[in-house]
Structure to design on (1890 residues):
């Protein structure tokens, strides 16, 4: 029984301290006056009676009633029912009150009295009942009764009523019904709930949903469970109380344990800024004060809104529960929703009453909790049963089994305080049960079954609601209450006497009487209804139906089992093959559990001794298994492995055993204290269970086994009260010692897993151990997180980073101590035992460290596991090893081919091998770690000089099981599009790795070019200086040295005398004033010397003659002579009629350091003028001629960009001469003269008398020839494209052009602009048919004779001059910086360092971002424009940047497109030597070849040029003599530093190093590294690798490639690699392996051999394993020649013969039945078709060439197989894959054949095959193996033969005939003359068909 009310209080208004309008509450009387012992009087009631503050009112208000809730220090709730009414305040009363205040503050009073005088005021007075029971209606009635008696003046005494109210007692629960009366003729019935654990909500829950709606309330519900702060606002206090009560009712069975204040008084508003969670209600008058709360969720009940601040994230219920709950709630709250769409809705939808609806909503939430916490009892650990149960919850296991580890909501709930209380309250196995326990245990199956059906869900909800309703209202037929109510409007009475003062004595007496009576009465015994709590079905059973358990194929588990069986049976090879699959399988949970079960089977008596290899396998599997476990180990994998890691071991030496735990310490799990707790509790539970199972004796053993620990505990709890005290103590002691022994056991286990094998390595618990997010680390509601506690005990953040080995021990001791303290205090271990443990732990740790030391020492001595032996790479001649192989793993990068990505194929990477550093390359050579591909060799290498980036990387943990953590890992990127990601093996000391990096750095950036490989190759350490001998003839070296000295002096001099202009600094060598001087040069030179050198005379003194002759030998000179651009006669006098001359002005490199020694300049320009002109241009690179169009005589010139001054001089100061003659002025005039001289040199200019009209000048491209029109846009539109395509309207009068836009992706080819017409030199619209200009031609502006292509940014503000004959084309070009960054992005696109989820898309995206193709498009576009201009007779001067990057690209491309000579091997060499080498492209600087240029980075200007050539080659495959491979070869070697060709920045520098003219005597030295061209030449003689078989040039063909981005292809040089042999550009290295392979396959010729070969992308060298048809034929020829013992003929001679033969044949066969191959070799098709037609790819996609050309020749030609087959492929060259010979037998029979020299005649079966165009012979008719082949293409003639020695007798002489081929003569003999004749005819017809 309990008191209905504890206290009755009367609270009245009292004025505030300051006498302001706000007053304060004051307790007038309270009863009883002494506190009850069991229930002290709560403080601060007066605040809660008027939560908004005590104020006076000007009128009477109606009485109000609400209930406030106070929580005391023991978290008991007190319900304060406040009944408030208003009383008039007498003025005198107020005066008296105020007088007291007056003394304190005088001036206030007058104001107040002035305020109050006029009207009467009313003050509130409250009657308060304080109770621990929540019976709101009863309190309302009782207080109402007291007020009625007072207000209506009823006869009953108030004292009696209040006395009986205070003495009334009622039962707490059990569904009793009690009628009470307060002695005023009243009667009330109080019903108590059946089960007090279920909350009582009346209608509050339903009201809350009405006010806020489903989504909002669900949000609040989740927020309350996940411990957010919630604030309710309403203007009604009663509603606030109801809303708070409703929220608590929804949370059942969890209990809210934070601040809970349904009505917060105004004075306590600062409580809202508390840091803890709360549920608080506040009157909405204080809404403004709540605005600045940043972390509080505010629910406005009146407005129905919930406001969630931005910084708060509410975790919602996991799906599908959230959806199901929403659905169920709408079924209950809005039953009409289901019917809303029905055509015939039911007439009545019975909505439940509000009270019933309230219970239905609660039923929904009850079901929700039952589903959320399903199976929770299976995750309880009972760690003590006596004296009372101690229970812990295994949170991780619960989440793991529910599959909700990653969920946002449930983990937070399980960590919360509410759940901790839930475990404590509901954990014990023997207690009262309620509705929730039954629901969770018995209804789980039903809830699962109901999931889909709304009807069944609703039925279940209604059933639960019934039970909840019945619990609150056990007796439906309640006798009516009878309580007097006051008369209506009584509060408005004018003369109402104040509430009387009650007589304390009377009331106290009534109370005392009652208490005495209670004490004498016998105590009521409450019937205990305890029982064993049912557990319900285990989680696993429930989850499987959901299919959340990961479906794992049985095959995978089978593999795991097999592998383990193999390991234990010692079948190591088998196991090794399966291991990778097992390690991959470990990603899945089932496989991990399978592994632990299997390993368990192999442990006998807690020990399993393995040999080293088995041990290694098992440890690797364990590590892999653990690396996917999270720190909390939710699936219990680490827990099941824990006993195994202490069981598996290996003997290292007698008495020393190494256990598996020393090898699996690197996992987070071991550093997580929660894991150890859960393990400990689990083990303790098992032991305690065993204690009681054994105690019951052995009989009926089987049943006992079935019982769970909780069931046993329940039984024990039931028996506990019946046991004797001794028995109880004995059990307590037994349990305690069990826990204690487990604690010791765990202290040992933890030291095993926490102490590293090598105590000096403090790798214990890497920082990452605590680096997890807060959730993963925070513990199961008992201690702080491990991170916090470690930080307290240790100052470093990472927990344990730089500690010494002694600290390892200290740390482990502290960690174990903390664990032991926690678990022992929780499980009630006695203090003595605990102290004992603390003493033991340091000893345990110390002992273990000692054992480990011995193990560590021994394990170091173990022979390392047999690793694959290091394969040595083959080196070039002269390449020396710098560092011997370091064992490394080559990791896969983002290219997926090698890792067996989308293409499939075996994973070649990761591979295990070694990295070698030589003077030339970095080489990795090894074998794949995947045993299925183990036989392959993987080679990846690149030249050191091409290294662009070297960085240390950290590999993600999951990369590979082979790689120990902490090993150094490097990523090396090379500009040959290669990437090495290597991880050093643990056997490689970190110092070695560092040394490797240092050496690499030194080799990559040598001090000087002369230290690069090309110079040092083959030099052993020679003595530094040889003794000097007197020179009789000055050798070339000295001459070149003197030359350089003089140049230095003169240049030095030149700059001293002319102070006005300082040249740009020479980046590579520092400023121009300081050269690397020889010391004897420091004497100053006389003035005459200076004049002499720079005089304009061209006579050369004898000492320079020799130099001159060498200059003449240079490439440029040869080319100038070829082009007829001036000759050097012996006297060097110029022939006057030549427009140009070769000037020697720069022979000392005095004018321009980066130009060649001989230059082409206009005839009329003097050398001294040149010197002045050169100063206007950047780097002194003045305009010189580099090519002339043989037909139009237009010239192509190149120069650097103009200096600002020069531009101003050239263009701006023309019409307005500057005041006073200035130097600038004169130079600009000279410059103008120079350009005019260039223009005058053009023949048509001179003829037209300077009036550049070109009217009679026609060219093939101007007269509309169809072919060119289809193929190419006209010049004007081209120009328009290049200029960005402006509308003619926008072109200014002077006709200045727009600029080339950076994007430049214009593809409109319409010829509309006037620019176009001006450029084309004619009026397009009115040109007469004969091409002569129309009448309107006088309107036409002239077309310039010289176009200057300049940089837009430099030519700003330049005004055109109508009198000039040149015009400036401003274009925007990208600078070297952009090329550099674009190239970086291109490399990342082609060779990404990390895999991306969708490689294809990522590649295309990053390719586009790199803008590489945009740049190529731009270069090609401008080149085509220049080609057009030159072709239409205008000269072009390319004057961009410094004249050595983009200028060089453009000038070279223009020549390549215009002049077929440059498309030959020899011509291309000449082009590169002339434009790139002589004209000073800065190879060293752009390639960052030395230390000095390291900072400038790698800028592949030359590579970009080669890519452009490759694009043109793709579009015109028949125009180039060299193959694509040649371009790749150059791309590779121009950065490789293997050859000296591309090493320095200019001829001057090469001269300085003595490279330019090698002396004749030195040729014999190591020639290999000198010139790439010599190498190419030598190689080209041996093999057709650089030759393009489709080369069939047209005379004078000018190429105009398409440059749209859609026409460009990504060069396969960027993406291909051959892992079998490394890059194929060092020919000597690549050739060796293939031959060895062939020898290996030779012996077993008798076995039937498959001719199939497996070709892997990225591994095999395709062009070699599957060569194109022609290469194959040439190879076969060569091998046949070798077989026949002939000297092999050179391939080129052979090729030329074949071509000559076919040409002759084509001429001899006028009928047009040309063979296809002759089409190939002597094609005369128009080029547009040719560019698209034949396509024999050098990579050899297939070895049959299909030539289907859309032209008449092929349709008329007869297919050579003899069948008339319309337009099928003209010929099929010999197909490699044709195995069944029988299909192609045109004619066969037996013939005698004479063997080779000195061999007899033998009968053979011959087959004539027209398709393959060959004669084959076999031993006999049935023989399938062909013994030899005579290729008919080689047959020269068939003649009648004569019998020779040993010929068959009895045969007519005429039956003999001879077949003469290019190599030998074959002698044949047929059976008779007819047969012989038939054979001859057949062979002849075959030959003629060809």
């Amino acid at each position: 029984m309990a008191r209905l009310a504890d206290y009755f209080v009367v609270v009245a208004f009292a004025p505030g301290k300051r006498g302001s309008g706000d007053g304060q509450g004051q307790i007038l009387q309270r009863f009883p006056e002494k506190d009850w012992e069991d229930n002290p009087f709560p403080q601060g009631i007066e605040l809660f009676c008027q939560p908004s503050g005590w104020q006076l009112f000007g009128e009477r208000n109606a009485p109000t009633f609400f209930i406030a809730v106070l929580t005391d220090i023991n978290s008991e709730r007190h319900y304060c029912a406040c009944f408030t009414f208003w009383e008039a305040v007498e003025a005198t009363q107020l005066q008296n009150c105020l007088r007291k205040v007056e003394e304190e503050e005088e001036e206030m009073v007058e104001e107040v009295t002035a305020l109050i005088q006029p009207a009467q005021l009313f003050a509130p007075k409250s009657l308060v009942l304080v109770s621990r029971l929540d019976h709101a209606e009863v309190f309302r009635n009782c207080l109402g009764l007291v007020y009625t008696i007072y207000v209506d003046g009823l006869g009953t005494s108030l004292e009696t009523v209040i006395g009986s109210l205070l003495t009334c007692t009622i039962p707490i629960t059990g569904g009793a019904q009690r009628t009470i009366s307060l002695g005023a003729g009243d009667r009330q019935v109080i019903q108590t709930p059946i089960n007090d654990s279920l909350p009582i909500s009346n209608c509050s829950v339903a009201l809350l949903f009405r006010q806020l709606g489903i989504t909002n309330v669900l949000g609040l519900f989740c927020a309350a469970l996940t411990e957010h702060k919630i604030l309710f606002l309403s203007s009604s206090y009663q509603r606030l109380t109801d809303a708070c009560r409703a929220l608590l009712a929804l949370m059942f069975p969890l209990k809210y344990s934070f601040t809970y204040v349904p009505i917060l008084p105004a004075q306590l508003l600062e409580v809202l800024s508390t840091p803890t969670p709360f549920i608080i209600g506040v009157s909405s008058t204080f809404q403004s004060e709540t605005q600045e709360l940043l972390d509080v969720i505010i629910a406005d009940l009146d407005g129905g809104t919930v406001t969630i601040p931005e910084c708060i994230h509410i975790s919602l219920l996991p799906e599908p529960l959230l959806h199901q709950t929403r659905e169920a709630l709408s079924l209950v709250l809005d039953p009409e929703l289901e019917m809303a769409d029905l055509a015939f809705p039911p007439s009545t939808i019975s909505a439940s009453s509000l009270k019933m609806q309230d219970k239905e909503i609660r039923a929904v939430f009850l079901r929700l909790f039952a589903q959320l916490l399903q199976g929770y009892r299976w995750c309880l650990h009972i760690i003590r049963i006596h004296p009372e149960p101690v229970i812990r919850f295994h949170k991780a296991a619960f989440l793991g089994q529910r599959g909700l580890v990653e969920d946002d909501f449930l983990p937070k709930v399980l960590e919360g305080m509410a759940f901790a209380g839930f475990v404590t309250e509901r954990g014990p196995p023997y207690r009262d049960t309620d509705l929730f326990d039954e629901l969770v245990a018995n209804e789980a199956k039903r809830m699962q079954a109901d999931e889909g059906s709304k009807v069944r869900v609703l039925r279940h909800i209604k059933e639960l609601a019934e039970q909840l309703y019945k619990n609150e209202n056990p007796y439906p037929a309640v006798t009516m209450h009878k309580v007097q109510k006051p008369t209506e409007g009584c509060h408005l009475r004018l003369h109402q006497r104040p509430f009387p003062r009650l007589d304390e004595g009377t009331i106290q007496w009534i109370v005392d009487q009652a208490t005495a009576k209670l004490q004498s009465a016998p105590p009521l015994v409450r019937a205990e209804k305890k029982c064993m709590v049912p557990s319900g079905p285990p989680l696993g059973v429930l989850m499987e139906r959901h299919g959340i358990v990961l479906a794992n194929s049985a095959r995978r588990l089978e593999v795991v089992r097999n592998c383990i069986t193999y390991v234990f049976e010692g079948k190591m090879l088998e196991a090794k093959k399966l291991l990778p699959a097992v390690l991959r399988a470990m990603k899945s949970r089932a496989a991990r559990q399978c592994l632990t079960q299997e390993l368990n089977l192999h442990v006998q008596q807690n020990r399993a001794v393995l040999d080293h290899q088995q041990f290694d396998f098992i440890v690797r599997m364990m590590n892999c298994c653990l690396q996917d476990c999270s720190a909390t180990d939710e699936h219990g994998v680490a827990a099941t492995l824990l006993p195994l890691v202490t069981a598996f071991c290996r003997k290292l030496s007698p008495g020393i055993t190494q256990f598996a735990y020393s090898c699996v310490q690197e996992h987070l799990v071991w550093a997580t204290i929660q894991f150890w707790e859960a393990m400990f509790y689990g083990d303790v539970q098992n032991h305690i269970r065993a204690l009681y199972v054994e105690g019951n004796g052995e009989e009926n053993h089987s049943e006992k086994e079935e019982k769970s620990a909780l069931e046993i505990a329940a039984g024990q709890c039931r028996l506990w009260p019946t046991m004797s005290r001794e028995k109880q103590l004995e059990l307590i002691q037994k349990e305690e010692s069990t826990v204690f022994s487990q604690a010791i056991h765990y202290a040992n286990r933890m030291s095993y897993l926490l102490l590293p094998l090598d105590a000096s390595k403090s790798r214990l618990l890497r920082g990452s151990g605590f680096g997890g997010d807060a959730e993963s680390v925070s513990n199961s509601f008992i201690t702080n997180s491990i991170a916090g506690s470690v930080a307290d005990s240790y100052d470093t953040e990472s927990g344990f980073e730089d500690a010494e080995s002694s600290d390892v021990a200290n740390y482990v001791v502290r960690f174990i101590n903390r664990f032991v303290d926690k678990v022992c205090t929780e499980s009630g271990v006695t203090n003595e035992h605990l102290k004992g443990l603390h003493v033991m732990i340091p000893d345990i740790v110390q002992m273990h460290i000692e054992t480990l030391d011995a193990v560590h020492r021994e394990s170091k001595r173990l022979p390392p596991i047999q690793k694959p032996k290091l394969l040595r790479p083959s080196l070039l001649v002269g390449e020396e090893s710098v560092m011997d192989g370091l064992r490394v793993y080559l990791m896969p990068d983002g290219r997926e081919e090698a890792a067996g990505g989308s293409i499939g194929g075996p994973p070649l990477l990761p591979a295990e091998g070694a990295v070698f550093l030589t003077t030339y390359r970095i080489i990795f050579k090894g074998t794949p770690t995947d045993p299925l591909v183990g036989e392959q060799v993987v080679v990846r290498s690149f030249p050191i000089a091409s290294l662009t980036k070297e960085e240390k990387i950290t590999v993600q943990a999951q990369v590979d099981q082979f790689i120990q953590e902490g090993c150094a890992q490097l990523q090396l990127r090379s500009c040959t599009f290669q990437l090495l990601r290597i991880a050093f093996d643990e056997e490689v000391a970190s110092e070695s790795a560092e040394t490797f990096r240092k050496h690499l750095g030194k080799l990559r950036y040598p001090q000087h070019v002369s230290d690069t490989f090309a110079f040092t190759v083959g030099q052993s350490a020679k003595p530094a200086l040889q003794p000097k001998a007197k020179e009789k003839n000055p050798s070339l070296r000295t001459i070149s040295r003197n030359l350089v000295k003089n140049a230095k002096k003169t240049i030095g001099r030149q700059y001293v005398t002319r102070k006005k202009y300082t040249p740009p600094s020479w980046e590579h060598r520092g400023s121009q004033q300081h050269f690397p001087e020889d010391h004897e040069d420091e004497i100053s030179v006389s003035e005459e010397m200076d004049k002499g050198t720079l005089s304009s005379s061209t006579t050369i003194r004898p000492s320079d003659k020799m130099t001159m002759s060498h200059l003449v030998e240079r490439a440029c000179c040869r080319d100038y002579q070829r082009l007829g651009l001036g000759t050097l006669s012996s006297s060097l006098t110029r022939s006057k009629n030549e427009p140009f001359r070769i000037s020697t002005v720069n022979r000392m490199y005095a004018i321009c350091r980066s130009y060649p020694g001989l230059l082409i300049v206009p005839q009329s320009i003097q050398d001294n003028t040149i010197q002045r002109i050169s100063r206007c241009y950047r780097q002194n690179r003045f305009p010189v001629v580099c090519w002339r169009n043989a037909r139009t005589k237009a010239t192509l010139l190149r120069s650097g960009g103009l200096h600002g001054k020069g531009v101003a001089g050239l263009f701006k100061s023309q019409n307005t001469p500057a005041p006073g003659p200035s130097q600038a002025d004169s130079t600009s005039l000279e410059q103008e003269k120079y350009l005019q001289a260039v223009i005058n040199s053009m023949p048509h200019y001179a003829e037209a008398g300077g009036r550049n009209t070109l009217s009679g000048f026609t060219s093939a491209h101007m007269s509309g020839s169809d072919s060119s029109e289809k193929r190419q846009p006209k010049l004007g539109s081209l120009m328009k494209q290049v200029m960005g395509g402006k509308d003619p309207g926008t072109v200014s009068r002077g006709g200045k052009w727009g600029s080339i836009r950076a994007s430049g992706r214009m593809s409109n080819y319409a010829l509309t602009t006037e620019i176009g017409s001006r450029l084309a030199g004619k009026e397009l619209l009115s040109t007469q048919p004969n091409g002569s200009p129309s009448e309107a031609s006088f309107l036409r502006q002239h077309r310039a004779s010289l176009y200057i292509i300049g940089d837009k940014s430099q030519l700003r503000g330049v005004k055109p001059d109508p009198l000039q004959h040149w015009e400036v084309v401003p274009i925007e070009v990208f600078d070297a910086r952009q090329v550099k960054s674009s190239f970086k992005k291109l490399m990342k696109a082609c060779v990404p360092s990390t895999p991306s989820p969708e490689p294809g898309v990522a590649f295309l995206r990053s390719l586009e971002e790199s803008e590489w193709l945009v740049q190529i498009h731009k270069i090609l576009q401008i080149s085509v424009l220049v080609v057009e201009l030159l072709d239409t007779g205008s000269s072009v001067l390319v004057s961009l940047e410094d004249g050595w990057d983009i200028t060089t690209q453009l000038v070279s491309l223009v020549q390549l497109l215009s002049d077929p000579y440059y498309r030959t091997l020899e011509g291309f060499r000449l082009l590169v030597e002339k434009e790139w080498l002589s004209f000073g492209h800065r190879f060293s600087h752009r390639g960052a070849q030395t230390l000095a240029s390291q900072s400038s980075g790698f800028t592949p200007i030359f590579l970009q040029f080669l890519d452009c050539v490759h694009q043109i080659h793709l579009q015109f495959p028949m125009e180039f003599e060299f193959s694509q491979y040649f371009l790749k070869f150059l791309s590779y070697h121009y950065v490789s530093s293997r050859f000296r060709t591309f090493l320095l920045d200019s001829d001057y520098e090469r001269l300085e190093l003595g490279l330019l003219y090698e002396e004749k005597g030195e040729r014999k030295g190591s020639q290999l590294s000198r010139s790439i061209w010599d190498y190419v030449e030598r190689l080209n003689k041996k093999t057709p690798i650089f030759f393009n078989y489709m080369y069939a040039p047209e005379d004078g063909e000018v190429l105009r490639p398409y440059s749209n981005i859609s026409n460009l292809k990504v060069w396969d040089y960027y993406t291909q690699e051959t892992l079998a042999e490394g890059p194929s550009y060092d020919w000597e290295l690549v050739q060796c392996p293939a031959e060895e392979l062939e020898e290996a396959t030779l012996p077993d010729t008798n076995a039937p051999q498959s001719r199939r070969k497996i070709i892997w992308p990225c591994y095999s060298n395709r062009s070699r394993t599957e060569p194109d048809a022609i290469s194959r034929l040439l190879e076969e020829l060569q091998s046949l020649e070798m077989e026949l013992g002939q000297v092999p003929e050179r391939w080129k001679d052979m090729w030329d013969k074949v071509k000559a033969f076919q040409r002759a044949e084509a001429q001899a066969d006028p009928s047009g039945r040309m063979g296809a191959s002759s089409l190939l070799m002597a094609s005369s098709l128009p080029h547009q078709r040719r560019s698209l037609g034949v396509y024999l790819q050098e990579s050899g996609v297939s070895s049959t060439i299909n030539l289907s050309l859309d032209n008449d020749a092929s349709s008329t030609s007869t297919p050579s197989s003899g069948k008339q087959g319309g337009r099928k492929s003209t010929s099929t060259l010999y197909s490699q894959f044709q195995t069944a010979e029988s299909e192609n037998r045109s004619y066969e029979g037996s013939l005698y054949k004479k063997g080779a020299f000195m061999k007899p005649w033998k009968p053979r079966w011959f087959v004539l095959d027209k398709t393959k165009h060959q004669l084959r012979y076999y031993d006999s008719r049935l023989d399938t193996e062909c013994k030899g082949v005579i290729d008919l293409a080689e047959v020269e003639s068939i003649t009648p033969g004569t019998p020779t020695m040993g010929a068959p007798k009895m045969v007519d002489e005429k039956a003999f005939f001879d077949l003469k081929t290019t190599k030998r003569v074959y002698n044949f003999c047929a059976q008779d003359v007819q047969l012989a004749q038939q054979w001859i005819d057949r062979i002849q017809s075959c030959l003629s068909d060809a």
About this structure: The chain is about 40% helix and 15% strand. The radius of gyration is 51 Å. The chain has a mean pLDDT of 75. The CA atoms of residues 1619 and 1659 lie 4 Å apart.
